[in-house]
Amino acid sequence: MISGKTRLAGIFASPVTHSLSPLMHNTAFQARSIDAVYLAFTVDQTNLMQAVESIRTFNMLGVNLSMPNKTAVIPYLDELSQEAQLIGAVNTIVHRDNRLIGYNTDGMGFMRSVHEAGVSIKNKKIIMLGAGGAAKAIVVQAALDQAKAIVIYKRKNATFASVVADFERVAEQTNCPIIVKDYADTEQLKKDLEDADLLINGTDMGMGAKKALMPIDPQFLHKKIAVFDLIYSPKETRFLKEAKAIGCLTRNGLGMLMYQGAIAFELWTDETMPIEEIQPLLVSKE
Q1: Per the confidence metrics, is the pTM higher than 0.85?
Q2: Which of 70, 125, 136, 154 is catalytic?
Q3: Does the annotation mark 70 as catalytic?
């Protein structure tokens, strides 16, 4: 029941009606007996500044953000966490003592899903396919979590040089070797996979119109490598099916979705999200 003390949280995005965040957080608030509600707000860069100021005005717990608001919001915040600074994007704002603090829980959420699967990141070699926003968040967090080395395979297009420079900066600040290579160099990719511990598909190959495509030839894989796909719809991509057939441990992107939300919930409330109640709801939506 909404009371005179009910606090507000929400998501600022456009479009926003498809978001699963209200389902997750309202279920969690109810399960933890927290007097709060979570709503979805249509916010783009035309009204972002006013929306962010409303967090203070209405004494909100905080909000989540999706692109393009993740980068555009930074000038309106009082502080950024370490990972948000390195990533250059924010997906969670926490309102604390009238200050707005930006975090990026995407990489942390992915790492929690990796840990849940029994896979360790520390001192391990990671291969990332693609270099988009989610991929960058994961690479930064893996570097912070002391991965041995990270190799990113990206198409050699107009943004290649700037991406290389960006990850060189991250490598310098985290003391983790991060190398960006040409996605078209399949021979080098095959060599890199020989001693890799974790492969992550951060591309869109396997979903929507690209449902039948695979990001690499599954023959490059070996059964000792864990294979994660950031896609969660379909539940199991063609690539994950092939990797599982080889004997690889496989996971889709649902864990990342769930745990990035769980970490935001913890930051707002100092309570844990009841994963055992949230997970079945998300699985039913796949």
Answers
A1: yes
A2: 70
A3: yes
